[in-house]
Design goal:
By secondary structure, the protein is of the alpha/beta class. The chain contains five helices and eight strands; from the N terminus they run E-H-E-H-E-E-H-E-E-E-H-E-H. It has one domain. The chain is globular, with a radius of gyration of 16 Å.
Amino acid sequence: MNKPTVGISACLLGHCVRYNGEHKRHDWIVNEFGKQVDFVPICPEIEMGLGVPRKTLRLIIRDSQTRMVLNESGEDLTDLALSSSRRILSKLPRMDGYIFKKDSPSCGLSGVKLYTPDGNCGTGGTGIFSQEFRKSFAGIPVIEESDLNVLEAQAHFRNAVLKAAREHSTT
């Protein structure tokens, strides 16, 4: 069996793609899990053409819909984020799992800051790319990197990815 294929937010592998030109390298992911899987690094915001460094993004609720906007200007980038996400997803190989960056307006799975138009903030948002990913790859294991700081979560995710890879190899 080939190594499982795991998509991952590129910043978690040490790629300097974040808004501020930095990364969020996660040692366990790179040094341990990386020996067992083949990673497919993705930064949806780079794929949107936003560059590094870039203005920060936020999720807002507008007309009962979650929108992605530039933090300072309020320019709505939702359509660009959706089209870029769909383009990325259409090119991906079979996936056995995905590791998302917590709190990201693109990649956060849950609890992303969600602002009202008047600036009040809650934490009920989900990143635009992660929403689209879960639609396209329903049923495969997904996790945020912060959850992988717990040994039990590491083992559970690793086992789920290996199981998904075995299932994919028999179909």
